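BUG: 3D viewer hangs when loading the predicted structure for this chain

Environment: internal workstation, default settings.
Expected: structure renders.
Actual: progress bar stalls at 90%.

Input used:
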Amino acid sequence: MLNFDAGAMAIRSQADPRSPVSQFRNADEANSVEVYSAYAGPTLSTRVGPLDVGASYRIGYVAVDDHNFDDVTGGSTSPRIDRFDTSTVQSAAVSVGMKQRGLPVGWTVGAGWERQDAERLDSDFEGKYVRGDVVVPVSANLAFTAGAGYEKFTSSQQDIVRDSNGVPVVTPGGDLIADPSKPRLLSYDQSGLIWDAGVIWRPSQRTELQARVGRRYGGTTVTGSFQHKINEHSSISASVYDSVDTFGHMLITDLAGIPRRFQTGRKNRGMVGIGGCVTGVDPGTGSCFDDALQAINNFTFRNRGANLSYSGGRGPWSYGFGIGYDQRRYFAPPAGNVFVLDGVTDRSYSLSANAGRQLTRRSGYNLDAYASLFDSGIAGTGNGTSLGFSGSYYRTLFSDHLQANVSAGIYNTKGDEVDSTVASLLLGLRYNF
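Structure tokens produced before the viewer hung:
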């Protein structure tokens, strides 16, 4: 009835995808960052008579170490983007509902709250909603669903210090300085009625499709998901998403989405490998971090995109591929073109593939490849691209818990004033609890 969940993660990433960082690069670079995150909280799920009752609370913390490099993009001609420092993230939700159980419809009433408090410029983001949903079966395989409610989202930050000419004053590292004596600046303010309607289609136990269209965040929203188990050896899944979010909140949400029983990536890597996903032992479970780690900054944004993945295996072989698209539209205060991302829409495209073969019960090898393209949407800046290929061999030592790994790869990155090709050879040991 009551669970308590907690998790933590440390990972290396890139702050600004206009100047991407090579995969598995160990040396510090001007655009490389270490990201640390942790969360904890209880979840309640129970029955009260005929009612299903649920509630949850989660608190998380995110910190980014950028090595105190002053230059974000590795060159002086690229516009500077205000970077992320630390934030505290909270969320809570409660719901009451009833499945059909002889009734003509199923229904749910729920409410939610989320908040991020960031250190940089004392920024905050808060969202609240309350809504009701119904599910109306029309056949054994098809149901209509609809929902309506009210939401309010706001984001604000401190104003900045300016000199007598109105020019922003910055630190020796180039960061803006908050001015608490001035009124706070509003970055995003959206409230009003929300609604959506759609279908749930389950033609068999192996297939499920959900699709919804409606109005939220002040405009039209489309979301959906599809899962299909092709046979006992392979499956395919896809999703379409739409939300208003921040980097810190999205990262904690992804971390909390990792199931209790998960696979530690492919056998040659750590928990998160190329593609940034953690796969659950149970089919259809897992969490991907690419949406959060696409770009690390201190702004609120509307995040929309879609992804498709396929995975399978037969005998000693395993294989898979994925393709994704993500779009962010940023919101910043109207402060005289101080904030580079105000009104900017960036886009990213990614493609990954992998194949592996188990040679013996204790050993095997894997091949991985990926490609990505990032369009910052900032006038006068170019695209960032990343390509890579790696091969690896693993072998279990002494027991099923200790594993030795050797991996070799070549990676190319191009972006603003960056064109780098890196070859790597990695040796390591891993212990699985």
